[in-house]
Amino acid sequence: MPSTSPDAPGSGAPGTAHPPVLALLRTSLPTLPPQLQRLAVLALESPAEVGRMTITEYAERAGASAASVTRLCRTLGIERFTTLRTELVLAAERPAAGGGPRVTGDITSETPLPELIASLGVLSTGSIEETSRLLDPAEVATIVQALGDARQVFATGAGSAHVVAVSLEHKLRSLGIPATTFHDPPSAVIGLAASRPGDVFVAVSETGTASETVPQLAEAKRRGCLTVLITRLSSSPAAEIADHVLLAVQDRAPLRVGTLTSRIAEMYLADVLASGVVVRHHERSLEALSSVEEALERYW
Fold first, then answer.
1. CB-based contacts of 287, cutoff 8 Å, min separation 6
2. pLDDT over 90, % of the chain
């Protein structure tokens, strides 16, 4: 996974805006060591309170050390604890500014259907919003250019993530870009035997675990493909291999509507990539879409 550049969002460089700190904490949480996990959980549960603490108070409350607080900041790409405090206070104030009730997304046997419907809408929208704020436009531009120039695009996703890969495949094919989707790792490795340098391989993997995604990414990279990983974890075996990592912010707590909508942010990222191709290769894309529309109208 490429390192964050000095001017990238979240790097702490002067004059640059940080990505949403709560989203960064959520995507990093599962891979953090125990002391940093306790710090992250406390910040997620009580951002406003942590935003008023000194570094010593924060460390003591979480049962960690001040050095661990510094390491957490660096993990998030934030240089100073004072900056983290400010980001946490702003994050805590943001829901209040909306004027509506706080939506937790908890599902119980007593959850009223109207509340469930509202929660799905609010949390899905929030997931997309936080995912969009984590995107680096320069990185997206690089991926989009590669997709438009590729001789072939390969995509894969295990389990329900396969739906996202298929969606991206259909969008790209409609834009005149040859694309193929694989459902399982062995099929992907076999299919990648036909890849060539300059092709693009996109893997959709919630966790980026070794057995699920690493063999495919490794084979694609060995053959000269540009590799892209869409995932919810900022650190994973697959993220270490991929040329580009796009983070999909998801709420994975048990029995929450965020779990039911875990594909929403990934679908959004697929839309961003396909729409970016339309912008970068506008005339060719319109011509391809017109051909698709003409073919469909001929029969339906």
1. 176
2. 53
